[in-house]
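Can't paste images in this forum, so I'm doing it all in text. The chain is below; anyone willing to post the predicted structure tokens underneath?
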Amino acid sequence: MLQTQDLMVPHDQSRPSVAAVTIVVPCYNERENVARMVAALDRALPGIAWEAIFVDDDSADQTAEEVRRIAQSDFRVRCIRRIGRRGLASAVIEGVLSSSAASVVVIDGDMQHDPARIPDLLRALDAGADIAVGSRHVQGGDAAGLDGVWRRRVSRAGIGVATRLMGVALTDPMSGYFAMRRELFDRLAPRLSGQGFKILLDLLLSAPTALRVAEIPLRFQPRLAGESKLDALVMAQFIGVLIEKASYGVIPPRFAAFAAVGAVGVLVHYTVLVAGRASGLPFEADQTAATIVAMAFNFWLNNTLTYRTNRLRGVPLVRGLAVFIVVCGLGAVANIGIANTLYRAHSGWTPSGILGAIVGVVWNYAVSATLVWRMR
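Text version of the structure:
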């Protein structure tokens, strides 16, 4: 029989008992960049006890397997593989909360952030900053690595919106490269939405008092491998986080996106109505067609954007569409019923209609989130 002592691994005195700094690397389909990142960290942090936690959202390219392969010969490297959960912000939260180091650094896994700037970020913390940010927009920084006009426009638009809402002077609130004390992150974690791809803004807006921010010039590097994750969804989720913070948490980011999709669906509905009228369809047939097309469009857009991390495919997609149509049908009934009741109670045409619409949207969101996008 094995004794307890037979299972014990001798402690290696050459290894520090805990890392001084944890590098959290959220990643999705970044297999080709894992070894590059570890080698770059090794060069950037000589004499510093560091560890790298790769938080992988179940990548199809076996990113997690590559991290584990390297971890077998490098005790400083480990992997958190997330099943059924996606999103950069939530990945960062899980990675940081798994650390015991005094300081944490968040860096993208695509090698567009230069790991050589980590010592500068850590020195800024030692000098008294609450959070040190790698900025592309201070003197000495460069955003040339943003490939494509679309990425540059999204980045500029996000910065413009964020700087109007923050109580902190920061040139690059869209940055995904920053350092802070883990103890501060722990305090802010319960306030974070965990939604979207830009957790820095979430941290800054969640702090009860303004944080002391230091900005370190960053030259954004061209991507060497893999594909960019920055698209329309990033901006939509970014706006959702802003809405949540502006409403003091009353409006969740995903609800804001769901309601925005519903507003677009109204335009689709009206467009189909106009087309049906021009073609001479009877009103009942025209209205039915417009309703079905708008519902199908809303479902597709929500599945593509709002619930992309829970996106339905195959048979669950068909079942989800059927349930979504039923849910929205009941929501329409609730909308009309409540609006009519309020109108008969002399609440006025406009407030009755608006309150009825709000009830319909809340119903559709609550039931859809509970039933539709949990199908597998």
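Residues 315-344 form the longest helix (30 residues). Strands lie at 21-27, 50-56, 77-81, 103-106, 131-135, 178-181, 213-217.
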